[in-house]
Amino acid sequence: MAVQPEGTPCWADAMFSDIEGAKRFYSDVLGWTFGESSSEYGNYTQAYVDGKAVAAVVPPMPGQEGQSQWCLYFAAPDAAATAGKIRENGGEVLMEPMQVGDFGTMCLAREPSGAVFGVWQAGTHEGFEARATPGAYCWAEVFTREPEKADTFLSAVFPYRMKQMEDRAVDYRMFDLGENAVLGRMKMTDDFPPEVPSYINVYFAVDGCDEAVARATKLGGVLRFGPMSSPFGRFAALSDPQGANFSVIDITTTEGEMPKVKDV
């Protein structure tokens, strides 16, 4: 698999204080299997579907315990240069670019409206080995109360073209690389409790949305929204038992016409 174009979502991981609990939950809900944990890299453990790497889980480092959350990484040819652009455009570098063996170089940052994300400069680890198949990453959206800040920042740091959905009910924007939409941005409404900060919501593909929701809630997950059918698929938003938000989507079950979009 070739290194992803700059700005492509290329990997996702999450910290869990109860790693074994996280493994049980995601193996039942998404069908993941797990590799050996790497003690050299803080017991970082990769998840697989049909032998292909789709995500990773890791215990928190001492002093970093807190609510679990998924972190989405964006591909960059030069993580240090991207960290510079993050700073220049009002973002905050939370972790300076750090080489991870020969796997690649990572960096963690926060965009001006508050969502945390990662940057990944690929070495031998090029990111997701499967996409948009059951159990694998499918899509992501930046949820923010300050869309102008997020839009300006993202389009300055990465080579995105932007399209706005023509819908008065929602403020939704898509970021394209070439002909492909790679990321969405949704303005958070008053439906979100004020204490919920901006965040990036990661979607994993599933065979059946309702069945995945049933498995998740039976295991202590919380249904936040849906299931709902859309032109993109039938989806639902969930929190896992340790509080990490994610969504599931069955892209084979679609309903309605694709929304109109305009270039921005």
First-to-last CA distance: 32 Å
Structural classification: alpha+beta
Gyration radius (Cα, Å) is 18 Å
Beta-strand proportion: 35-45%
What general form does the structure show?
globular
**Count of β-strands:** 17
Discrete helix count: 4
Estimated helix fraction? 10-25%
Task: State the order of secondary-structure elements, H for helix, E for strand.
Answer: EHEEEEHEEEEHEEEEHEEEE
The largest sheet is: 9 strands, mixed
Determine the mean pLDDT.
94
User: Ranges with pLDDT <50 over ≥5 residues?
Assistant: none
Strand order of the largest sheet: 14-15-16-13-9-12-11-10-17
What would you note in describing this structure?
The chain is of the alpha+beta class and 264 residues long. 16% of the residues lie in helices and 41% in strands. The strands form two sheets. The protein has a nine-stranded mixed beta sheet with strand order 14-15-16-13-9-12-11-10-17, covered by helices on one side. It has an eight-stranded mixed beta sheet with strand order 2-3-4-1-5-8-7-6, covered by helices on one side.
List descriptors.
264 residues, alpha+beta, 8-stranded mixed sheet, 17 strands
